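[step 3/7] inverse_fold.run input=structure_tokens len=111
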């Protein structure tokens, strides 16, 4: 057996999805990914007026790699959200935001 690739907390966070069927877990994970996407894009575009922000989100939803990401069930939107939190945290001088972003980046420490 190979050693685990991800840190222990990664498995603890995803453990609740194991309580559901594969189909239900996949749907839940897709919705979680969409929420992470909207959170990240919202953070990165928060200085823009509402209409351009909505347009950016709509265009991003049409971006084929994002659709593929959600269909396949990748977990890299966690990293995007973490990066967005770090950017906003530094910009605002907010240690909790920056720390939260750094915590999310530990989900894939080998990058």
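[step 3/7] decode complete -> sequence:
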């Amino acid at each position: 057996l190979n050693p685990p690739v991800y840190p222990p907390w990664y498995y603890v966070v995803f453990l609740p999805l194991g309580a559901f069927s594969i189909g239900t877990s996949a749907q839940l994970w897709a919705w979680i990914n969409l929420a992470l996407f909207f959170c990240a894009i919202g953070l990165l575009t928060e200085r823009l007026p509402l209409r351009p922000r909505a347009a950016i989100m709509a265009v991003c939803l049409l971006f084929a790699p994002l659709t593929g990401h959600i269909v396949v069930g990748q977990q890299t939107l966690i990293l995007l959200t973490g990066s967005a939190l770090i950017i906003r945290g530094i910009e605002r001088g907010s240690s909790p935001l920056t720390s939260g972003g750094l915590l999310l980046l530990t989900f894939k420490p080998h990058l």
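[step 4/7] annotate
The longest helix spans residues 22-44.
The chain has a mean pLDDT of 91.
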